[in-house]
Amino acid sequence: MKNLINLSTAQTKKMIEDGVVIIDVRTPPEWAEVGIVPTSHKLMFFDKAGNYDGDKWLRDLAKIAKNKYEPIIIICRTGQRTKVVGDFLLNQAGYEKVYHTEKGIFGWIKDNEKIQKI
């Protein structure tokens, strides 16, 4: 079983600066409420009812992250949803290097990092 790798805000920022793709898995109302990390791709995983379509989500992800061997970062509100998404990517979808921002977008904001309003 592969494990999701936790990142601090500073580590997330450094990886983004190095060109690693970041995927925001929150919902559209959440994106609108607080904004997103600049350069992140908005790709909702769970709907409001907590359901997801893994196959469709993976097809959409493949348009952003071109292969399963390059690192990707996932971010949500507080780091809880990304634990589930990360496990899905690593242990069901065959991704090799999945990282998540441990404290989510709220940690990013608390650490005074830039937010892009949408």
Describe this protein with a few key phrases.
118 residues, single chain, alpha/beta, Oxidized Rhodanese, domain 1
What does this structure look like?
There is one protein chain. With 118 residues, the chain is of the alpha/beta class. It has a single domain, classed as Rhodanese-like domain (Oxidized Rhodanese, domain 1). 36% of the residues lie in helices and 14% in strands. The chain has helices at residues 9-17, 28-34, 54-62, 81-91, 104-110; strands at 5-7, 21-24, 41-42, 72-75, 98-101. Strands 1-5-4-2-3 form a five-stranded parallel sheet. The longest helix has 11 residues, at 81-91. The relative contact order is 0.27.
Question: How is this structure best summarized?
Answer:
The protein is α/β, with parallel strands linked by helices. It is built from 5 helices and 5 strands; from the N terminus they run E-H-E-H-E-H-E-H-E-H. The protein has a 5-stranded parallel beta sheet with strand order 1-5-4-2-3.
Number of DSSP-assigned strands:
5
Write out the strand line-up for the largest beta sheet, numbering strands in chain order.
1-5-4-2-3
Q: What is the helix tally?
A: 5
Shape: globular
**What is the CATH architecture descriptor?**
3-Layer(aba) Sandwich
CATH superfamily membership? Rhodanese-like domain
SSE topology string: EHEHEHEHEH
